[in-house]
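Attaching the record inline, Q. Sequence:
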Amino acid sequence: MFVACSYDGEIVCCDCEWNAVSNKLVIPDGEKLSHAAVARDGRSLIVTCGGSAPYESEYDRSMIGVIAIEHLQNTRCGGEDGDARESSVEFQLKLEYRLTGQFEFAEFVHESNQYIYIVCHTSQNGVWSQLYERVPVGESGHVEYAMIQRVGLNERGPGVAMVQPNEDNSMAAIAFSDRSVSIVDMKSMEVISHFQCLGSSAIRCLIFENNCIYTKSQTRTLDEWKIDYNSKTVSLLRSYNTAFSTVYMFCWDDERKDKMWLMTDHSLHLYDTVTQKDESVSFHSLTCCGIDFSPDGKYLVTGDFCGNVFVWDMTSHPHQIYEFSQSTNVFMSVRALKCKWSRTGDDQRVWLDVFVGTMDGNVFCWKVNLMNPEETQEPERIFALQDSITCLELQHGDDPSLLAVGTSDGMLCVMERPRPGEGSLMRIKLAIVAHRPITDNTDLRFGSINKYSEVWSVSWSPCNNYIVTASEDQTCSIWNLYGEKMHSLTGHTTAVTAVEWRKIPSLGEVLITIADDRNVMVWRLNTPQNIHYHHHQQIASRRPDHSDQEGSTSKYIDKKNKWGLYHIFTTEGFGLDWHTLTYMCVERSKNDRIAVATQNGYVFVWDIKTKQLVSRYKRHNASIEGMAWSDDEENNYLATCSSDCTINVYCMLAEATVYRNK
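Structure, as predicted:
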């Protein structure tokens, strides 16, 4: 059994197969859970929640919660075949005690939950350590923790960077922002020793074993320090040369103590301390951007700013890290991805066409043979535009022929696949300036709308005859395939970053928009049948002269179709740090849910029909730069990618959102 804790204050016990074996405890005011530790007897858990130090006043508070882990009993339940089978042992999580203050770290001392060691940090009083003792109150079973000792570590000196206990929780290594480290006996509160580490940047991680401390410096060395408890001194024993500088986490390999796992910002390394060589496990290396599922949901394709494109096999064991089956590099920063099947002569869907839009304006097609990787072709450039590709969207259907493209200079282009015998280059069907700069804008907080009105997102209508664009100019526009503007939506106060046009059984046709103003707007078509008028009657007019595009489109504004604002969801009021909304996608099944990603790594899920918030979690440590929902109703996967170079895959259940972080 292990305990899993989330940034949002959710705690649950799981077995080795990620099955919950306890109730899910949500800590009141448990936002920003930063640290958790289990007592050595396995009966208690302590967590630290709250803001970051230094705290300016007594009103800037964090919270420490002590949680009892009560063992219940073995239970038996019926299996699928009706026979009884023994299930996992169950546990009950209960918040036993909470303490508010200006805390950075809390840890149980020694072998039980009788004592807790707390590190405090305020701008007025510096860094202090406190020792609390568990005190039963009466015969009711209620307990409290009373402070029995307080010792100053420094006054108005450097702040706390991290705290790491040793193996038996008898001592702690407290690292400060000036790269100095104090070794403290957590029971007597005595400072055993204090020493200065190598390098210049803050210490992000260290290993503290009974008489050794390992630290990572910016000089690409892994330093081993020897502690002499008799003389109370620490000396540098040896330095290991590594090929990387910034490390966020390292730990010993379970099988061999002379090998160590080190995690950088974009790769994982197994480092041999004897040979001083490492085996690199590297995937996305700079801002994972662009993500899409294969049409059957069995493969996931992702890209990054280094030009890497990976195809991940989603059919592997659901509780293991997915393995990428194939990869390539287009040698240009990937901005957007879309996938479709490519039919063969016998109609077997073994080829996956991956369209890759890059920041230098190129679009590539990578033909992937899923059955025989040796036949996979190299990416081929199929067209190029003058400015960055910001979004790609294929027509609906099994065999789409048109690809809509948005660019950073406000262009909307519709590309058509070549006819048989014409080669691989796509033909331009439509190219217009869909959004023009706002020259009188004075709000410089967002984007560059004085120079450009970037098209951040495009979406096809359910009938495939119209395209809606979302732009930096704070509007959405509906276009037909002649380049005529049929309708405009206004209401957002900042850049509109994503749009989806869907037909939902319970509501009819809806347009959903998100923007930097943190609002999600759902627009409903106000017609008797809630169906777009032009689905039944195509406009009978000649293709306009595009020499004066702005003048030619204004008179084609659609007056018959009125899109009314149905509902507004917002991410305000949840106590999040500053953020914007970046990406959105709509569930393909009957549940009518929308998922929205934020610039600071959160994912929100709402039910459009009930207007209820289904889920809200922090999923990434940086901005989410792509989101996709699979068409596979059996597994119903939602995937996100981020500039933290990770990909998360979530299994979206009908009544709750459960995620699997891959």
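The chain has one helix and 53 strands. The two ends are 20 Å apart (CA to CA).

More tomorrow.
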